[in-house]
Design brief:
It catalyses: sphinganine + NADP(+) = 3-oxosphinganine + NADPH + H(+). Pfam families: adh_short. Its EC number is 1.1.1.102. With about 350 residues, the chain is an alpha/beta fold. It has a single domain, classed as 3-Layer(aba) Sandwich (Rossmann fold). The chain has 11 helices and 8 strands. An 8-stranded mixed beta sheet has the order 7-6-5-4-1-2-3-8, with helices on both faces. The protein is globular. The two termini are about 40 Å apart. The chain binds NADP nicotinamide-adenine-dinucleotide phosphate. The site of NADP nicotinamide-adenine-dinucleotide phosphate (NAP) has 30 residues, from helix 1, helix 4 and helix 6.
Length: about 350
């Protein structure tokens, strides 16, 4: 990482695509990127929110340059064909993106045995496929299309602190965020020869709409274990992301605890303050297992106190889903045959 030197993440006059931009971090970053001189295309499913965000961004940035634009594309990125429609739209407008921010994602906390098959599918689809399909569909066009001379293209993926420490309650989410970390690491090596830089964000908690939603089902024991990570605001998170990307980081952290947890499992990972991380890694090698054992003990105590976890952390939405699973079982169907009807999903709506 760079301590001194120029901005390693210039966005002025660049075209940036941001997924997950109907709310939360995606929206906050879209706004800041536009303020800093980039043209931005916001992507998510909710057309009403996207249109209102675009409107707000334009109105709140009166000094934008005449060459800048901000648009939205409504698409369900878990459906590969909708990513192809985005690609076709870019081609039709002769748009050549310089930066892809893949931020779509969400968590539905809960205990493994209480999650429904739909919860599990959503975890895989929203957290992994949205990034995998989006990058894959755009990749050939992205690497081949012109960039500013001497300037690098950039893909930014969004993982989470929980990719470095897996604990109870995040089983629908954290394995997928580890998959995003692996995707970023693999793409970093493979796309470097094409002049594409790949960074991965590992944010700690920040107070987005999604964070409020996930707290509705978050078990008390999960909240207790993650207690060390207090939420920052979405704007603070977006500022930290841009700050560390400007410094040139491949792994971006938004709080100390995430950096410490990442340092505990350095391996082949890119380094941030590498010498210090080696020292922290040594400390981690000594103490991390004891912290893990302490948390295992806390989980056992919580389990004994409640007489089992059944019902803990659930809300009414879960009860409805659980009833559906029970209905299937009553009908003699196996849970494994439950499938999501893709025809009922939002269709791509490419609109300026
Ligand atoms: N908040 C936290 O504390 C926290 C911590 C660590 C990491 N993260 C990660 O940071 C990223 C942003 O988090 P956030 O809290 O800002 O999220 P959020 O408020 O839940 O927003 C999620 C965004 O993803 C979009 N999205 C979901 N499914 C989609 C799909 N199938 N196709 C296209 N877009 C889809 C949503 O829009 P539509 O519903 O309109 O499609 C929304 O814009 C996520 O990847 C999250 O996992 C968050």
């Amino acid at each position: 990482m760079a301590i001194f030197g120029n901005n390693k993440f210039p966005v002025k006059d660049k075209l940036v695509l941001v997924t997950g931009a109907s709310q939360g971090l995606g929206y906050a970053l879209s706004q800041k990127l536009y303020e800093q001189g980039a043209s931005v295309i916001l992507i998510a499913r909710n057309k009403t929110k996207l249109a209102s965000n675009v409107d707000h961004i334009i109105k709140s940035t009166p000094n934008a340059s005449s060459t800048q634009f901000v648009e939205y594309i409504s698409a369900d990125l878990t459906i590969y064909e909708e990513n192809i429609k985005i690609l076709n739209y870019l081609k039709s407008k002769n748009y050549h993106p310089d930066i892809l921010f893949c931020l779509a994602g969400s968590s539905h906390p809960g205990f493994f045995m209480e999650l429904t098959p739909d919860d599990l599918s959503q975890g895989i689809d929203i957290n992994y496929k949205t990034a995998l399909y989006f990058i894959h569909a755009l990749s050939k066009y992205f690497v081949q299309s012109k960039s500013q001379p001497g300037q690098q293209k950039h893909i930014v993926l969004c993982s989470s602190t929980v990719a470095f420490y897996h604990f109870t309650g995040y089983i629908q989410y954290s394995p997928m965020k580890t998959a995003i970390k692996a995707l970023g690491d693999s793409l970093r090596q493979e796309l470097k020869p094409y002049g594409v830089k790949v960074s991965t964000l590992f944010p700690g908690n920040f107070a987005s709409e999604g964070y409020t939603e996930e707290n509705l089902t978050k078990p008390a024991i999960t909240q207790s274990i993650e207690g060390a990570s207090q939420p920052i605001t979405v704007e603070q998170c977006a500022d930290k992301v841009l700050y560390w990307l400007n410094k040139g980081d491949h792994y971006v952290f938004t709080d100390l605890i995430s950096w410490v947890l990442a340092s505990f499992s350095l391996g082949f990972n890119p380094r941030n303050f590498g010498v210090l991380q080696v020292f922290v890694a040594f400390v981690g090698a000594v103490v991390a297992r004891f912290v893990g054992l302490l948390h295992e003990h806390d989980v056992q105590v919580a389990f004994d106190k409640l007489g089992g976890f059944a019902g803990e952390g659930k809300n009414k939405k879960d009860d409805v889903k659980q009833e559906k699973v029970e209905e299937l079982l009553d009908d003699g169907q196996t849970v494994g045959t439950t499938s999501i009807d893709s025809s009922s999903k939002a269709t791509t709506d490419v609109k300026k």
